[in-house]
Amino acid sequence: MPLSDVPLASVCLCVISAAGRAHSPCLWEGLPERNAGSQTRGCPALGSRQHWPWSAAAKPKGNCRVKAQTLQGPMAEEAPKKTGLERSTAPQDDLQGLQDSVFSSESDNSLYFTYSGQPNTLEVRDLSYQMDMASQVPWFKQLAHFKMPWTSHKDSCEQGIQNLSFKMRSGQMLAVIGSSGCGRASLLDVITGRGPGGKIKSGQIWINGQPSTAQLVRKCVAHVRQHDQLLPNLTVRETLAFVAQLRLPRNFSQAQRDKRVDDVIAELRLRQCANTRVGNIYVRGVSGGERRRVSIGVQLLWNPGILILDEPTSGLDSFTAHNLVKTLSRLAKGNRLVLLSIHQPRSDIFGLFDLVLLMTSGTTIYLGAAQHMVQYFTAVGHPCPRYSNPADYYVDLTSIDRRSKEQEVATRETARSLAALFKEKVRGFDDFLWTAESREQSVGTCVQSPAPDTNLFQAPTKLPGPLQQFAILIRRQISNDFRDLPTLLIHGAEACLMSLIIGFLYYGHGAIQLSLTDTAALLFMIGALVPFNVILDVISKCHSERALLYYELEDGLYTAGPYFFAKILGEFPEHCVYIIIYGMPIYWLANLRPGLEPFLLHFLLVWLVVFCCRVMALAAAALLPTFHMSSFFGNALYNSFYLTGGFMISLDNLWTVPALISKVSFLRWCFEGLMKIQFSGHAYYMEAGNITIRIPGDMILNSMGLNSYPLYAIYFFVIGISCGFVILYYLSLRFIKQKSSQDW
């Protein structure tokens, strides 16, 4: 006889062990329900695996009441004794290791960081949302298809959400499921106020009894995006600590910030990897599930009452995804409202949800308790087959099949009829939820949090000011950059290798002077070769951080001004070391003009030119949305400056347009300045047979058209061009959304 046909005991007395503590009796009836203290779902006698009798014969008969003792606080003092893992003579390190293990384990159901404010509510009333599909296509892709971005496309609007209504409160976790294009992403975009190009046709969103506004959303709602955007070279603790300094009110002491970071690490079970680098696809660090928890922790630091997550299990294996949803379930129990979108979850993940919203083509097919979903569809004539995952089955049932016109019409009619049937069944209900039992029963439970400190939460919170933001951001950038030792070594080796190659190419002449042509070529290469490498490095680095910048600016962690100054000044240490490694060997190996003053003038001009090229790359990276476009623009600009630099062709022979470009070419001013340092006021001797001809340096400069301005003016010209690129960089940060390619 199949296992699902075995009649379940109406009353089953079981023993559940909670983190190695004392055993408590559990009264279990009928179908399993979510409980704050139990780790076993379904009949405990069947083991720790979850058993869902999806057949129509299995009906819920009651509620599972589990009384299980859990560890209170970080670690109960007597826990090691009761687990038998600690002896009186055990060393302190063993005790600490045991505490760390239990403290970060998924079997620990303790709540370390609950929401301490008033309970929150989220209500969507008769919401209809229309998407403008053309506006979601990036302008550069429209140009690639020979379409003008500013032209309107009236036929590109699609209905994203149709007459959606639901209401949820603190202590509940609502999962929005459905096939691709069902409206999950649109719903989250509308609630968080980040809908790109869409328009609300009717309805309204209410948060805590107030109409939703951008200020209210920023105050109450935390949004965890689908993709993790974190600095890879910082540890988990450092990542959270820097965000805590930026996000928590300025009246928080350092001890309070550290305590908040510790609480979040404890709540998300990250203590074992707290001192491990976050990492990414190139830098080895924490696992994918742990990295996703860090992203949640970044939003959890300011203790929001409403947590919205966009496909948090995307890219994770089933075991890691299950543990992550268990973490979200714990967060909901901590007096929080959790709303997440998710693809077809496996059965044990589905069982963790309090509420489920099944959508297709923007309409509601089912909204109610996860445990009642099978019963509802069975009642309307669509029972779930045995041994099938209800999430998979009912998402497939309501999906639109576009493989043929006939199938599309048939599936749309099925979805339309199911949507109309559900709307009729919940008519007159205030929360728009379908339940199989009395309306007084609440779905989901939460831990009652202590009364909030009115002085702390009712007073307006002042975040750190611009100077504090700048100090925090520059420390974060320098910490992240100088932890990237392989990249620093590669850049240092690159500068040293180029310096030695150029230096040894001109080495060995001794007292014999280089020819005029060779000297001019050397000086032009010194100023022109290194900036080319700097452009690609800076643009690549900026685009790797672009998504993080966009999210943090959108979340209000800081403004464009502090980030701008932190980015500019944060480049100085690496820039200075790079120029020292590159500039010093060349000067002495090539036997350029001796003396401290010519060397310092030479070094300063090279420093300014490479810095100008660096800020030009920053501006190109912020101005254009993709790495390829930014690198193309930067290289095109650099090549224009290179060709009009005065070495390839004399400045006097340039026609109007190249002559204008040469006026703003920092390579032209670098070449002219280096030539003036080498030849101005210094005679050059040229041998013609047995005759030595003395040629004044100024005559050489005049013949090449490089003596039109004094040396100090050249420094001001380079500084002015750098300031122009700096201003362009700031304006790009200030007025252009720094979306990455994955956010378009």
TrEMBL record:
Taking every annotated instance into account, which residue ranges of this chain make up the domain ABC transporter? 122-386
Origin species: Bos taurus
Family of this protein: Belongs to the ABC transporter superfamily. ABCG family. Eye pigment precursor importer (TC 3.A.1.204) subfamily.
Tell me where the transmembrane regions lie.
349-369, 485-507, 519-539, 576-593, 599-624, 636-655, 709-731
Where does the record say this protein resides? Answer: Apical cell membrane
GO terms assigned for molecular function: ABC-type transporter activity; ATP binding; ATP hydrolysis activity; ATPase-coupled transmembrane transporter activity; cholesterol transfer activity; metal ion binding; protein heterodimerization activity
Gene name, per UniProt, is: ABCG8
Topology with respect to the bilayer: Multi-pass membrane protein
| Keywords noted in UniProt | Cell membrane, Glycoprotein, Lipid transport, Magnesium, Membrane, Metal-binding, Translocase, Transmembrane, Transmembrane helix, Transport
Q: Would you tell me the protein name for this molecule?
A: ATP-binding cassette sub-family G member 8
